[in-house]
Known about the structure:
Order of helices and strands: H
Shape: rod-shaped
Number of helices: 1
Amino acid sequence: MTGANPQTHFEQIYGRAVQALNNAVVAFDAAQTVTADLRQQQNSLSDLQAAVTAQELAYNDQLIEL
């Protein structure tokens, strides 16, 4: 307990635990953001695949009409 801001052992460990928890929250939030981005990308891919399939069916129907 020396220095400009003396702290007990408990206070030091508590401060480190709080910082570790804050770091975990930041990491969790970043993981949620990445997960949401991946989900959005998968949804976009599914929409594109559906549009391509629909367009291909439309072309096939036009060819059949000819």
